[in-house]
Write a structure and sequence with these properties.
Elements lengths: L2 E4 L2 E4 L6 H7 L23 E4 L9 E8 L4 E8 L2 E2 L10 E3 L4 H14 L17 H10 L16 E2 L4 E3 L9 H9 L5 E4 L6 E4 L11 H6 L5 E3 L12 E6 L8 E7 L4 E7 L12 H5 L13 E2 L2 E2 L2 H12 L7 E6 L4 H15 L3 E5 L19 H7 L6 H9 L5 E5 L8 H9 L2 E6 L4 H5 L2 E4 L8 E4 L5 E4 L12 H11 L9 H10 L18
Parallel strand pairs: 1-7, 18-19, 18-20, 20-21, 21-22
Antiparallel strand pairs: 1-2, 3-6, 3-7, 4-5, 8-9, 9-12, 10-11, 13-14, 14-15, 16-17, 16-22, 23-24
The structure holds iron/sulfur cluster (SF4) (2 copies) and FE2/S2 (inorganic) cluster.
FE2/S2 (inorganic) cluster binds next to loops.
Amino acid sequence: MPTFTYDGTTIPFEPGETIIKAAWRQGIEIPHYCWHPGLSAPANCRMCLVEIAPAPGQRAMMLDVLEWDPALNDYRPRQKPKLQPACQMQAAEGMQVRGDTSENVREARKGVQEFLLLNHPVDCPICDQSGECKLQDYWLEHGQYQKRMRDEPIHKPKAVRFGPSIVYDAERCVMCTRCIRFMDEVAQDPVLDMRERGNLNEVFVAPGRELTGHYTFMTEHVCPVGALTTVDFRFKARVWFLRTAKSVCQGCATGCNAHLDYDPRYNKVYRYRPRDNEQVNQYWMCDEGMVSYKRAHTDRVLDPRVKGATATVKKALEAAKSQLEGVPGEGVAVVLSAQHSLEDNWALRELAGTFLGTRSFYATGLGEGYADTILIHADKNPNTRGVLELVPSLRSFGQLIDDIEAGKITHVIALGGETPVADSRTEAALDRLAGLVVIAAHDGPLARAAHVILPATSWAESSGTYVNAKGLHQVAEKAIEPQGAAAPGWQLVAELGQALGYDAQWTKLKQVRARMIQVPTVPESFTVRPSSQATP
Ligand code: SF4
Ligand code: SF4
Ligand code: FES
């Protein structure tokens, strides 16, 4: 691989790659505002200027400039090397690039900072980007000058509603055009543009339009300063109080990688941010996914219930035992959930296959919905591939309803409260069951119809593996502590097994994972032990 040097560090690059991107891949940040690894590079902010040594045998390109000399109290002529934007300049073999080590570059960065902050309001204490703003960071690293402008700054529109989800503050905008390019190049809806020039520059929404669609939140996330904020997160939390977990969005089968930000003081989740993964979501998430962090707290099953009344876990397990004991395996359906983790599903399959002796595996989860060619998948479940890996011959939820109506299935043990369809036929069929034991994190028709329900942790409260539509196994790490009486689904399955008299030998997540690795997938011919041979 060809290489170049940046401040003496050797950096490999792919042919055609820019200096800034190759450095960024190596974990070296060349300061920038307008550059984003997923967008085109207009080179309009000039923060990434670097000094490049001339190629062997060539003269350096020099510029004639006038420089203020305080001793002379006048300008004097000087020559400076012409700096280049690292975001547009392609790397070349043997190139010698200087950033921090060049006095000219340091001066240029300082100048850009001063220029950007000429009219920028000093409202960091009330700005939502405070704590993660590039203007603040770079001022500290590359600015640190006395403000020379004594005039009143230019005032521009503040708190402008671009649409239902995004608010724009023109005074804070550094005109990097990232939001404009994102809507054009990624969301494929060029609804934003720039108007006026110089100090009066501002971003605006096309006349007659609002900033709407499935990717409006991303404009806030690409904004390097606090000019764009989401109505959802605005003024809700200070970022320095938040902790983050590496998570996986649960909104659809794409499985976008995300940061799940939470406040440990309140055990509360506040937002999702995209986490870069070039194989899955690159740098983006959709709006529906971005607001789905709320599911950590809404529609949750937080208490064990027996016939609708709150109970202790012990009482619920006893009730489940009395419902299921002695029922022939043939009449028991086990329902895996595409909403739950691979670990939860593996535990239930293990219990069902090894001990209960059922051959009837079905799947549940949410139904299909909107899809596009950017990120959004029609399958609104994060783990459909996962449950199919565990039991490839899984029958559909519709088949379960048919089998209940035909009287073949009398008892159900299910993971997850959701169903793909929530209609009166589903409700009527579930009502016919003699026994319905549900282990679920979220409410839904199955949870509401359950005779016994055990509260499971959601993806935000326990670490779990999810297999996305492409078959990638991805781990969503635990963020907050379990809410209410919730416990990990795999643990509740083990407790249910023990209540039924079986020796479910997994008490720790690592044990579940170690055994999952031994049996990564179940072949089509997966057989279960008949109930008559079940290990008591
Ligand atoms: S709103 Fe933000 S992303 Fe858009 S041009 Fe201004 S600073 Fe850049
Ligand atoms: S595309 Fe799917 S996984 Fe990605 S953010 Fe949207 S809902 Fe979440
Ligand atoms: S990052 Fe290169 S000019 Fe803006």
